[in-house]
Write a structure and sequence with these properties.
The chain contains 1 helix and 19 strands. The protein is mostly beta strands and about 230 residues long.
Amino acid sequence: MFFSFFGAVASAGASAPAKPPVAKSPQRTVVTVRPTFTWRKVAGATKYEVHVYQGSILLLKKTGLKSASWKANKALPMNVSLTWNVRGSSPRGAGAWSKSLTFTIVDPNAPQGTISTTKPTFTWGKVAHAAKYELRVYQGRKLLMKTLGLKRPSWRCSKALPMYVSLTWKVRGSVGRRAHAWSKSYALKVLGPATQMAASAGDAQTAVAGATVATAPASLSGTPTTSRSPA
C-alpha cells in the first residue's frame, strides 16, 4: 500500500513538456497544396498538435500526432501567406507552442515564361472548398479571355493567344456565389515552335571559283541557296 501511494505521488508530480518543439518545415515557398509539416521532438512529449493559420483564421488543426511529421489532410490555399506552429503534450498537460513559421504555396504547373503553343493548357492547384474556378488572360490591361464554371484545376485555351506579346493570367476559386481571392498574375509569352535551317543537299563540294557545282546547295525545305561555289 505504501509503494502504491508513493507511485501515485510521483505520477502527480509529473509535468507537461518543459520546452516547445522546434518547427522545421514548411517555410518560405513550397509547391504543394498539401505540404508535410516536420519538427524536432521535445523531451517529455508523447503527442503533438499542429495548427495552420491564414492571418488569424485557423485553417487546419491536427491533434494526437505521435511522430514528428504530418502531411496536411486537405488542400491549403495558394498565393497567400500562411503560418503554422506545433506543441507537444504529455498525460499531465500541453507544453508551449513552437515559434511560428511562415510559408506560401505557389503553383508549379502554370504556363509561365515562354511557351511554344498558342493554345496552352493552364493548370493550378486546387483550392480548399472551391467547387468551380474562373480564369482570365490579359494583354496589358486588356482582357483577352475569360472562362467561368471550370470544375477541374486545368483548362486548355479555346482560342489562339497572340504571339510575341507579353501576356498574364490569373485564376480564382468559388463556392456558391462566394468567390475566393485571385491568384497572383503569371506572365507568359507565346513564341511559337522553334525553327531552324539545315543543309539538305550540295554541301561539302569544291569547285573553281565561278564554276557550277555538281549538286546545287539547298536548305532543308528544298529551296536552292546558290548554284555556284563560293569565290
